[in-house]
């Protein structure tokens, strides 16, 4: 999900919620749309989602924290997704964690970016890069 953060706006969020609330299993489509629109799902909006879908707040929080693609606060800095699936693991993706530990980026694991032939792969703000070394990653982030 190559999302950018937009300012949260309750009215737009309500619109999204209204449009999807009647679907069977509406929770995931609602969360996906909110995440795609704003880059996160405002934790303050969880009670409204829960009420509209007849769920408990704990249910909604549980789903948001279960899926790596969802977050309940705006990400800080660039969003770096490091692939942790098999091909990238075998090419040493774990070595890419260190260069991004400086707090100015949001790091998320993903499981295959569809770029296995060029493992290890990362995605930075929605753009995929292959054969990434720790040095190359540092360069991409600077
Ligand atoms: S396993 Fe990493 S891109 Fe497919």
Give structural attributes.
four-stranded mixed beta sheet; alpha+beta; binds FE2/S2 (inorganic) cluster; 142 residues; Glutaredoxin; 2 domains
Distinct small molecules bound, one entry per kind: FE2/S2 (inorganic) cluster
Strand content: 5-15%
CATH superfamily of the largest domain: Glutaredoxin
Overall average pLDDT? 90
- Biggest sheet layout: 4 strands, mixed
Count of helical stretches:
6
Q: Radius of gyration over alpha carbons?
A: 17 Å
Order of helices and strands: HHHHEHEEEH
Q: How many angstroms does the end-to-end distance come to?
A: 22 Å
CATH top level label of the largest domain: Alpha Beta
Q: Biggest sheet: strands side by side, in what order? A: 2-1-3-4
Identify the CATH architecture of the largest domain: 3-Layer(aba) Sandwich
| CATH topology type of the largest domain | Glutaredoxin
The residue ranges in which pLDDT falls below 50 over 5 or more consecutive positions are none
Helix content, binned percent: 25-40%
Structural class: alpha+beta
């Amino acid at each position: 999900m190559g999302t950018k953060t937009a300012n949260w706006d309750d009215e737009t969020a309500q619109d999204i919620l209204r449009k999807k609330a009647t679907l069977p299993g509406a929770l995931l489509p609602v969360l996906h749309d909110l995440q795609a629109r704003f880059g996160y799902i405002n934790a303050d909006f969880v009670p409204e989602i829960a009420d509209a879908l007849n769920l408990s707040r704990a249910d909604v929080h549980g789903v948001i924290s279960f899926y790596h693609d969802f977050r309940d606060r705006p990400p800080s800095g660039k969003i770096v997704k490091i692939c942790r699936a098999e091909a990238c693991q075998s090419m040493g993706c774990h070595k890419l964690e260190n260069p991004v530990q400086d707090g100015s980026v949001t790091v998320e694991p993903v499981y295959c970016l569809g770029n296995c032939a060029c493992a290890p792969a990362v995605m930075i703000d929605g753009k995929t890069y292959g054969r990434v070394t720790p040095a190359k990653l540092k360069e991409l982030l600077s």
